[in-house]
Structures are given as C-alpha cells and as structure tokens.
Amino acid sequence: MTQAVRGAAIRLAACAKSYAGNQVLSPVTLDIASGETLVFLGPSGCGKTTTLRMVAGLIRPDAGAVFFDGTDVTHVPIERRNVGMVFQSYALFPNMTVAENIGYGLRIRRVPKVERVKRVDEMLRLVGIETLRDRRIDQLSGGQRQRVALARAVAPRPRVLLLDEPLTALDASLRERLRIELDRLLRELCITTIYVTHDQAEAMALGDRIAVMTQGSIAQIGTPGEIYFQPANRFVAQFIGAANILEGPIEDGSLRLPGGSIKVANPPSAPVAVAMVRPEEIDIVNLDTAAWKGRVDTAHFLGNRLRLTITEAAAVPITVEVSNRLDDLRSGDQVGLAVAEHAVRVLDE
Amino acid sequence: MKARRLLFVLQAAFTILIAAFLIVPAVMSMVAGVTTNYAKGVSSGLTSAWIFQVWDLYADTIGRSILIALATLTCTLLIGIPAAYALHTIGGRTGRLIEELITLPLAVPGLAIALALILTYGEFGAFRQSSLFILAGHVVFTLPFMVRSIIAILGAIDVQTLEEGAASLGAPPWRRFVDVVVPNARPGILAGSLMVVTLSLGEFNLTWMLHTPLTKTLPVGLADSYASMRLEVASAYTLIFFIMIVPLLVAMEMIGRRSSKTGLLL
Amino acid sequence: MPRRLFVGFCLVPLGIVVLAFFVLPLVRLLQVGASGADGLAAYWAILTTPRYRESLVATLALAIATTLSTLIVATIAGLFLQRNAFPGRSLLIAMLTFPLAFPGVVVGFMIILLAGRLGLVADVARILTGQRLVLAYSASGLFLGYLYFSIPRVILTVMASVEKLDPSLEEAARALGAGPWAVHRDVILPALTPAFVASGAIAFATAMGAFGTAFTLAGRSDVLPMVIYTEFTLNANIPMAAALSFGLGTVTWLALALARSLGGSSVAATG
C-alpha cells in the first residue's frame, strides 16, 4: 500500500471571487470528506478551475475561508499547503529528467537521497513508467507526461490531490484508457481528491460525488446516480446526458401534454410543472392502449440503440432511445409512448 | 515568361550590387592588412608584419576590450536575469513602463549618455579614470538587450505554469527561480549574452567620450589608427576586430535559426 | 520569503544601476544645460542659433535621406532574397548582415577604402575619366557611410516581415487578374507598411545619433553629434553641449516612440 497518510477533510466556507468587477465565483460552501473524490463538472467559465485554485492556494478568495482538517489555511500559500497538483498542461520541468521531476517535491522537503530514490522508484512503478526514469520531458508522449505529472504530484504524500482537467489535452482513445487507470489509482491512494473536468463521462466514472457548476455557483451536488436520475434543475438535467424537458399543466398527479398525459413521480403543488424524462426511459407501446401518443419524425440506427425523434407528443420534439431490434418504425408513423412514473422528475427550474 | 526572368535578373543584380557595396571594402581591408604595400596592391607580396605591428601598438586595447566585454556580460547577467524575471512577473502596465525606462538608453545617443556620465562622476577621479567608468557605460547600454531577450523566452516557455508546478511541490520563490526559471531560460540567456558581448566589443560612441589615454578600447584604438596610421596598419587592426566578432555573429545566426523568436531580436 | 518581496529584490540591482548611471546623469545633464550664460534659453538655441539650426537641419536631411534610401534598397533586396531559392542565397544573406556589428568608425573606414584617395571608386574613375574621384570626405561619402550601417539592420527586419506575409492574399489578387506590379502595389507593399514604419523609425533614430562614422570621415563637422562633440572638447562650452545633447536625445526618442506605437518591438543598436 502506497498511501500511509490520511487525506484531509476540506471545507470551503462561503468562498467567493471576483475579477475586475465580474463575480467569477458566488459564495460557495462545501464539505469534502477525507479520502473522497469530488468532481467539479461544468462548461468553461463556470468557476470550477477558480474553486480548485482556491483550494490549492494559488488564489485567495475575496470572501470566505478554506479549511483543511479544521485548520484555516486561507492565507497559507500553496508551497506550504502540502497539496499535490496536476495541471492541465502538466507543467513538467523541461530542464529535469522524469526521475528528477518526480523527486522534486521530496528534494524540497529535504528527504534524504536514499529514501528519495526509493520513493521515486515506487512512484514509477505505481504509474507504470519504470523504463522512462532517465528520459527528458520533451521525449515523452502525452500519455506518458500525464503519468509523470501524476507521479510527481503524489510522491511527497500530499493530503489533498488536485487535478485540473488532466485528460483534456489527450486524444479520445487515450483519454478513455487513462481514465480507467486514474480511477484505479485514485481508489488505491485514498487521498482526498478534487477533480475538475467538463467531460461528464469522466465525472461519472471517477467521482464519489459530483458538483455541477454553472456561472459561478453549484447547481447540484450529489452522487453520479443522484445527479443523473434526480437532477435538481433544467441545467443539470440537460448538462448530464440527454434530457427531454416537458412542460405542461398538472391534473390529478399527471402531466398533461399535447400527445396525452403521463404520471409524475413528485407532483408539485403548482398547477404548471416542468419535468424531465431521459430518452431511454420512454418505451414504444401499442398505439391503441397508449395514454400518450406521438408521431415518428426521424429514426437513426446508432448501432447499439435506435434513436427516434418524436413530434406531437409534447410542445417540442422529444428524443426516445429504444432497442436496436425495433426496425419497423418509419417517419410519419404514429406510435404509442409509455414512461414509468418514477422516471418523470419535476424540476425546480 | 520573359518579363519574369528579366525581373529576377534585375533584382539579383541589384542585390548583388548592394552586397558587394557592403562586403568589398571589408574584404579589401582584410587583404590590405596583410599586404606589404597597399598602394601597389597584392602584387607587392603578403606579410604578417602589419599584424605584429598592431600587436605591439595596440595589444592592450584588445585585451581591455575583451575584459570589459566579459565584465559587461557578467554584470548584465547578474542584474538582468533577476530583473527580467521580475518584470515578466509584474507584467501589465507597470512592467511595461519599467521596461520602457530601461530601454531609454537606446533612444538617447551614446554621446549624450557619455556626456551625462562625465558631468556626474567627473570629480570622482579614481572612478572616472578607470576602466570601470567605461564598464558602467557599457552596462547601461547593453542591459536592455539582455533583459528583452530573457523576457521573450520567459513568455515563450509559459514560466508561470512551471512556477506553479514547483510551488505546488513546496518550493519557495527563490527556489523556483533557481531550479526552474533560470535553467529553462537558457536560450534567451545565451542569445542575450552573445548580443551583449558583440555590442560591448564594438561600442564606440559612449567609449570615445569616456576613455582616457590609459583606458583605450579596441574601437577607440581603431579610430586612432584610422586617423594617424598607415592604411595597412589600420587594416590589420580592423582585420583583428573582424576575426573577433565573426564567431560571435555566426553563433548568433545559428541560435537565431534554431528559434526564430530570438533571431528577430537582432 | 513571500513572493512579492523576492520579486522586489530581483529589481534592486537594476534599480541601482539605472538610477546611478542613467537617471541621475541625465538629470545632471539637464541641469548643466541650463547653467550656462544663456540659462534655460540654451535649450532653444538648437532652433534659434543659425549654426546649430543649420546643423540640425543637415542632420535631419541626412537621416531622412538615409532612411528612405535604405527602405527602398532593403525592400527590393529583401523581397528578392526571401522569395527566391538559389545556390548561394545563404552566403548572400550573410554578406548583407555581416556589417551589423561594425561600429561607426569601422564603417567610416570602409567608406575610405571604397571612395577615399586610394579607394576603389577613385581607381575606377581614373580608368574611365582620367581623374581620381574622391567621395569619402564629402557629403556623398557621409551618405554612403550612413547607408552602409543602416542597410543590414533594415534588411533583416524587412525579410522577417516578408516571411510573415499571408500568401493567400496575393493568390486572391492574382485570381482576380492582378499582374505582378499590381500585386506588389496593392497587396505586398501595404502589408509591409508596419515593418517599414518600425524599421524606418529605428534607422532614422540611429542616423540622428550616429557619431563614429562622421568622426572618421573627418571632413564633415556639421552633423549634430559632431557639433556637440566640438562644443564639449574644443570649445569647452559644456552647457551648450549638454543642451544640444538633450535636444538630439528628444528628437531621437520621439522617433522611436512613434515606431513602438505603430507596431513592434524591434531593437536599435549601434550607430
């Protein structure tokens, strides 16, 4: 086992940040448990990187405080916070070899040479790059650099690990492969980890919890399952996976739509509601007995699924994903639709 | 097409003419430096006598110029590297303003700077009459080149992210400077160094005013020889100067080619 | 040590050197300039006294003539070199940029070799007309000298700019029917104008402040730097020398400021 140090519990207390009159981060309060991996997910400009750099100590919040294990570290600069950081561009030192890069944090902490070499070797093994020990940085591929950056950040046994879009600079297939390795690594290390990304597949795969951010504040925070199945509002619903947004009046616990009516899981007290349904939750059923009907506009065979655009079922066209075995649906066909009650979630805008 | 061909030939001829204008006298001077009698031409025979005569008369100026150039280099490195780092870090309007200030010596004619220095330090006899006085002038004049060169490379290597990386590993500011900033600024430091040495060796406008009979540099000696010596001696002296700066120019060209950014600094 | 303090320390050596050996002396220069018999009026002498005014005009004329000629020469040669590949191209470029490091005195010497009493031009003229033609110590000789040190610098800048030209603009012009002359006139030269302004201003500034070349070609003593020199050394009229230096410095600085604002941070060097 490589990690003997427990990760720190992090607390952000009403931290806010503005640049030149623009509020980049609205006051955010957040608790991250020791050893947890929290993913900040959101489009560019949402404030996720700002939050990360605040936890790192690279920027100071205009208001609020940052705590590590109950100690206020707001005014402690990054070099004394004992965090490990992986930058989007990796920030590897071109003037040092791979081993020297990885050992740099240990050198600063005056770890004796013998122990330092041992630890560097351990890191090289951990990320699987033993053969690259004495290479120069410019001789490495993107995936190799990423691994060196990770090894370097983790070598000094930080209590917090911060990753700023570490896979964004890589191509798709490499990203997928490294994501799996990262997942294994993070589980093994048990450090408190904050991971920033705009890629929702990454977020779902790696996070114990996900904080979805938009325009400087957190839209929702929860486990991947909670975020996916119980989005709090329209933004989260549409940012994670595809979502059909259905609006209409509520009558007897059902949502009335142009194509019929569907039962709702958590009917609100208001007369009108906005609900979301995931495409894969809608089934095609017998037209005659269906309570909700629509007309097929397009049908795309995607290989593992069939994606349909259905009009007339709601005020806007909806997307439905069904089994790839249904091959007799043509544009213009009228179809019956059904969706389970628990899959229709009312959103608080 | 005929017109195009003609245009090419005309342009080529023009360019060669200009190149000849620049090079022919240089070649002539190199040849004159080893010709027994210039008026008679190369037919009078080749000799190294003039070069030896130059050595007798002016060896001290050559040595002094080299020493001052190296001293200027040392000073500009020690002053310029940290300053460039600071200016790059500060950035924004303040940084640019300070950069403008240190570039002012290039706008003010060497003559004026020299005059100003003499008026200010003329009374400090020992300083005024030593090579240190010339050194001061050279440093003021060449510093902008070193600083500019390093600022350019710092911008190119995204030094800020590298520093953040080192900081995240616990390195305090001076450690980051020594371990990460300076080693990665090497190309800019090299280009700046070559520039400073070349400029110092050839500096005349300032040095002519600042020198005393005991602190003559090579260009000052050259001016002397042009005025009072035989053409052959003056040419031999110039030949020695050429031999000294050609390697520097070649090195600068090679570095410039490896990185087009520093090349433009010429 | 906190970062700000460290950065501050980094600037201290620079601060000391610049203050002690540049700012302070310049202030003293200003002071001395106003300390002569005429007081502050000395600063206007550059415009009011006929001798100085003529010198200023002569220097300006020389600098402008040098700048324009150099730009024309550098454009023709620069375009040619940058756009054609032929054996010996690198050699030609090296020959054109070699004089970059020559101090003004050496340039003066080159002109003497070329156009002095024993010079090439003299010999050629003797063969053609029977009479030696000695140009070096006249106005044309000085002009040739100024051309000599300006061309290498400006050619480099022009070549760098030609390299950056977007070829698709020329291709578009040609597709619309423009012949080579029209393409040059309407596309290439306008695109090079920022480079012309920048390097032209630097050539101008260098020519204004050039001393070594005029010094060697001793015949002429009416360029401003030489006038300043004689005021200081021969006439011991220090205040006037100081005031004139300040005037010269101001004109030069204005030209360079113009260059910077109109584009680019190229660097001036020796003169």
Summarize the structure.
The complex is a heterotrimer of chains A (349), B (266) and C (271). Chain A is of the alpha+beta class. Chain A has two domains: 10-235, Rossmann fold, CATH 3.40.50.300; 242-346, Nucleic acid-binding proteins (OB fold (Dihydrolipoamide Acetyltransferase, E2P), Beta Barrel), CATH 2.40.50.140.
Structure commentary:
The complex is a heterotrimer of chains A (349), B (266) and C (271). With 349 residues, chain A is of the alpha+beta class. Chain A has 2 domains: 10-235, P-loop containing nucleotide triphosphate hydrolases (Rossmann fold, 3-Layer(aba) Sandwich); 242-346, Nucleic acid-binding proteins (OB fold (Dihydrolipoamide Acetyltransferase, E2P)). In chain A, 24% of the residues lie in helices and 34% in strands. In chain A, helix 2 crosses helix 3 (113-127) and helix 3 (113-127) crosses helix 4. The longest helix of chain A has 18 residues, at 172-189. The radius of gyration of chain A is 24 Å and the shape is elongated. Chain B is an all-alpha fold and 266 residues long. Chain B has helices at 2-32, 49-90, 92-107, 110-121, 125-128, 131-156, 159-168, 173-184, 186-202, 205-210, 218-228, 231-258, 260-263. Chain B is globular and about 75 Å long. Chain B starts with a helix and ends with a helix. Chain C is an all-alpha fold. Chain C has a single domain (34-261), classed as MetI-like fold, CATH 1.10.3720.10. The two termini of chain C are 44 Å apart. Residues 265-271 of chain C have low confidence and may be disordered. Chains A and B meet through strand 6 and helix 2 of A and helix 7 and helix 8 of B.
